[in-house]
Write a structure and sequence with these properties.
The structure is a single chain. This protein is an alpha+beta fold. It has 3 domains: 2-58 and 76-98, no CATH class; 123-184; 200-398, no CATH class. It contains 10 helices and 13 strands. The strands form 3 sheets. Strands 1-2-3-4-5-6 form a 6-stranded antiparallel beta sheet, with helices on one face. The longest helix is centred in the middle third of the chain and has 45 residues, at 143-187. It is flat.
């Protein structure tokens, strides 16, 4: 007999007559330590696999313990060094899973909002305050006068509560009308509303992205590809004797992982845009990165449809293969057989060349860690090179006082942060 307790996501403790055993990590890469031999397991759907690792099973020899490490292993089934390696392996596995499965995240879908009616003060609180006002200056010996004013306080309190309730209802109706208008504009693909909603959703993304424009039921989005420096650089394996091993990734393994990571974030960016704007049917996605000299270069482009994107995320074996199938036309990329990602040749792509020129002129990098890129006329939905003034993408009544990306205080007339270029949303 025994029982188990889930202490946190990915952490479960099991207690039985054999001792205490802890499981760490998601099901796809789980480490088991504690009573008995340490082990690792993996599983997807109805399939699972478990293997124990080499080391002491926890029993002691008749000669007793010879040192602190043996005593620790005898008590807990694992040495401190093995425990540290297992934790490091779990961290690496979790990070790899995070980088290559960004597209598997289910993003929240907006729904029509309902305005709430503000609560008003109770009749008791109102009466107490009004009574205090009415009795101010009245002598305590004027019994009749004080009694009359207390009675009047009850009447005034009831009238005041009725007035406040009517005011709260009126304000809720006005707010509901605003919310209904916003919802209808979002579903009708109003450019400023769609840009505002997607920009808000992109705010916490590891791969920064910005909406360049919205035309009809299609949005053009720029994604800044993360650099190779965010890759772990190491991989986890199991030796022939069943022990966990951590070794450096080869150049080829790093290239494969980088291509998969970029593809995963590209699908995630499109998926989140579709989730945020129910009326969009296609997303024209352009992926940019910095070259060794710090200049922008495009490394991928294509138009992804809502239905195809949903299908490949659910069914494709990898994000890289899924990205090639997410649009009605082939995904445009310049990747050789060794999976070396090179800049696109834009000589036959005049629209992309013009866009790259505009982006190079306008710095679209946000502060580090900000997921939404907000660059001058780009995020505002103004076509590059048009010279048009950017539109405010937050209603005046809801405009923030401070930039959410760098904390700079906005001036009253600012639509964008003068420090980092972040949109005032």
């Amino acid at each position: 007999m025994g029982f188990s307790v889930r202490l946190a996501p990915g952490v479960r403790v099991r207690m039985s007559s054999r001792g205490v055993r802890t499981s760490l990590g998601p099901r796809i890469a789980r480490v088991h330590v504690g009573a008995g031999r340490p082990g690792i397991s993996t599983g997807v759907g109805p399939f699972g696999y478990y293997t124990s690792l080499g080391g002491s099973s926890g029993s002691r020899s008749s000669g007793g313990s010879r040192g602190g490490g043996s005593s620790y292993a005898g008590s807990y089934g694992i040495t401190p060094a093995q425990h540290s390696k297992l934790l490091a392996a779990n961290e690496i596995t979790a990070r790899l899973n995070e980088l290559t499965n960004a597209h598997k995240v289910v993003f929240p879908v907006p729904a029509p909002a309902t305005a709430t009616v503000a609560e008003v003060e109770s009749i008791e609180v109102l009466e107490k305050r009004i009574r205090k006002q009415l009795l101010t200056g009245v002598s305590i010996f004027a019994v009749s006068e004080r009694k009359a004013r207390k009675a009047q306080a009850k009447v005034d309190a009831l009238a005041e509560q009725t007035r406040l309730q009517q005011q709260a209802l009126t304000e809720a109706r006005v707010r509901q009308a605003e919310l209904d208008l916003y919802w209808s504009q979002l579903n009708a693909n109003d450019p400023s509303v769609v840009i505002e909603e997607i920009t808000r959703a992109f705010g916490d993304n590891e791969a920064k992205a910005a909406v360049l424009s919205v035309t009809g039921d299609s949005a053009t989005i720029l994604m800044m590809a993360p650099g190779t420096d965010i890759l772990p650089g190491k991989k986890v394996g199991v030796t022939d004797s069943g022990n966990v091993s951590i070794r450096q990734m080869s150049s080829k393994e790093s290239r494969v992982l980088y291509a998969e990571m970029i593809s995963s974030h590209a699908l995630a960016t499109a998926s989140e845009a579709f989730a945020s704007a129910p009326g969009l049917k296609t997303v024209r996605l352009v992926i940019s990165r910095r070259d060794p000299l710090g200049r922008n270069e495009f490394i991928g482009a294509g138009t992804l449809s809502r239905e195809r994107t949903r299908t490949v995320i659910a069914e494709a074996e990898s994000a890289y293969s899924g990205l090639q199938l997410a649009g009605d036309e082939p995904w445009l990329a310049n990747i050789d057989n060794a999976l070396v990602i090179r800049a696109l040749d834009l000589r036959s792509e005049p629209e992309l060349a013009a866009l790259l020129s505009e982006i190079s002129r306008t710095d679209v990098d946000a502060e580090p860690g900000a997921g939404a890129v907000a660059g001058a006329d780009l995020v505002a939905g103004v076509e590059p090179g048009s010279g048009a003034e950017p539109v405010a993408i937050a209603p005046p009544a809801n405009r923030p006082t401070f930039c959410r990306q760098c904390g700079t205080r906005f001036a009253d007339s600012d639509n964008f942060c003068g420090e980092c270029g972040g949109a005032r949303v």
